[in-house]
Design brief:
The chain is globular, with a radius of gyration of 14 Å. The protein is an alpha/beta fold. A five-stranded parallel beta sheet has the order 2-1-3-4-5, with helices on both faces. The protein has one domain: Rossmann fold (3-Layer(aba) Sandwich), CATH 3.40.50.450. The longest helix has 17 residues. The chain is built from five helices and five strands.
Amino acid sequence: MSIIYLAGPLFTVAEREFNSHLAEAIHKKRPDLHVILPQENAVKFMDGKKKEIFQDCIDSINKADIIVALLEGADADSGTSVELGYAYSKGKAILGIRTDFRISEEQGLNLMLPFSCNEFYLDTLATIDTLVDKVIGFTDRETTGLIQH
């Protein structure tokens, strides 16, 4: 079983719902893929244990085989950016995803973000189904050693 860590913003209902929907769709199509959603773990520490939330995210990234970083918005979420940098420093396989059509710098992002990814996927017309297929394809290539690090 491959483990995917889904890094992305999780502060609004819309963000949490999207993350959950994407994770469920991945697992539905490929039950052998386990998706870690930080938002599910964070609720265990919501009584003021912020350091524990941070440590849980780090521990989860360390356990994961694949990191999927949702790099959305006018400026990518700062927590996601930290998770991406940490995963990069650990040599993790990283798929960056952006569906946002705002373009300013490197495909709408600070250039450090897409270049930290083994693969960066920009698709402003993406659907949950196309994102699921992209994540599964990346995971399959990574687990068979076809992604260049």
